[in-house]
């Protein structure tokens, strides 16, 4: 049912003259992009542990710098949070 509501609202916004969107985001949207986010991955972290206090800690080991490593760590964090519903302390160890 919620998706039916989403579809209706999207149609209304796309067919409007842009005034509502302009008020929401502060400028005119010139193009609507495909919002499908395909996900075909099975990421595996180096180490994830639970401390004696119950906290989660993620240790990721790297031998070199990688572009957008912070984005990969953010993906790991959001996955952990969805799975365990708690904050995960992340540590990057360059070896």
What does the model show?
There is one protein chain. By secondary structure, the chain is an alpha+beta fold. The model has no long low-confidence stretch (mean pLDDT 86). The chain contains three helices and three strands; from the N terminus they run ααββαβ. It has helices at 2-15, 19-25, 69-84, and strands at 47-50, 56-62, 88-94. It has a three-stranded mixed β-sheet with strand order 1-2-3, covered by helices on one side.
Principal-axes shape call:
elongated
Instruction: Count the beta strands.
Output: 3
Low-confidence stretches: none
Question: Helix tally?
Answer: 3
Rg (CA only): 20 Å
| Average predicted confidence as pLDDT | 86
Major sheet characteristics: 3 strands, mixed
Termini gap: 51 Å
Q: Considering DSSP H and I runs of 4 or more, what fraction of the residues is helical?
A: 25-40%
Strand order in the largest sheet = 1-2-3
Short characterization:
This protein has helices at 2-15, 19-25, 69-84, and strands at residues 47-50, 56-62, 88-94.
């Amino acid at each position: 049912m919620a998706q039916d509501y989403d579809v209706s609202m999207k149609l209304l916004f796309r067919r409007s003259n842009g005034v509502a969107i302009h008020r929401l985001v502060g400028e005119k949207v010139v193009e609507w992009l495909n919002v499908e986010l395909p996900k075909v991955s099975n990421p595996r972290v180096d180490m994830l542990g639970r401390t004696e206090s119950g906290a989660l800690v993620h240790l990721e080991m790297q031998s070199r710098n990688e572009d957008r490593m912070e984005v990969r760590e953010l993906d790991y964090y959001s996955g952990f949070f969805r799975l365990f519903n708690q904050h995960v302390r992340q540590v990057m160890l360059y070896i």
